[in-house]
Amino acid sequence: MTADQHSPASEPPRVEGATRRMAVTIDDLPVVSVARSDLEAGWSTTRGLVDALAAHHIPAVGFVNDSKLMRDGERCEEQIGLLRAWLSAGLELGNHTFSHLDLHRVSVEAYQRDILLGDPLTRELLERHGRTLTYFRHPYLNTGRSVEVRLGVDGFLSRHGYRVAPVTIYLEDYVFAAAYDWALMLGNGPRAERVKRTYLAYVEANLAYYETLSSRLFGREIDQILLLHANALNAGLLPELASMIERRGYAYVTLDEALRDPAYGSDDSYTEAGISWLQRWALTRGLPASFLDGEPETPRFVRRHARSPLRLALLRRVVRFREALRLRVKRPLARRLRRLLSRAASGATSRARSG
Question: Cβ contacts of residue 30 below 8 Å, gap of 6+?
Fold first, then answer.
């Protein structure tokens, strides 16, 4: 074994009294942010995630978009260094396509090309650490708009040595992360803190929802697979999130161990927008959409502040322009039109009387 394979992240201890099991996966490596793409921010996010995973002995898999490792068509060693930090901590990497393509928006051929483009560099890095590139995660969790497309892509992945990494605990953490990023960029500390507090409550409510959904669907709680994204919000809060998960009775397991749960062999004919596999399985069974009721929603204030401040500023300008146009042009025109109509009506009345 290499030194990496002896790291605490790759060999999670068995937690005394744990009654639940969870595999943790993190998408969009090396990092993802709506506000910052500089290397300093990348290292801050990477260190926060990797340190917390190691401290809690979480054998996570990080799914990589290789396009982020390139600059002007060439390898960017600075960005690749972020992935080396993951590997040095004994963590796994997977393929998330080269450029985060959406299978519901491109042809199967284009999607398959992007899978292959996302293979060589990540595979090379893994092999240098004595590991094998095994897992694939669909961007947006979109697996095809027809069963035939999904099965075709699944077969393609299998022929290239990949296993699909499903998700049972799906969060809109990326919306919270965008609101958090913009708050920090604008220097709005109170808003950033509010987003963080709200996110922690949102995650716990979702854990309870998916635990209950699992029990209703299978009569037991299956081994869960959590999806997070490699963003600054999760980097800062992962110690608290991990402790929360542990308090709920979870032991962390590898993705391979979680996938041994028989539930992951369930029939799946779902072809709409990406959702949790628990929800996919329920709909495939023909259960009504109401069976899925109760999923916690992302608060409106988070969605509002997740929008780009530049976009919001532009929208406000458009609204102000429309109002100014109404006041300066439309309102005077309307008054003039009313006067003309009034005169026309008075003229018609006068002619009628004289006749």
Answer: 42, 46, 64, 68, 69, 79, 82, 83, 230
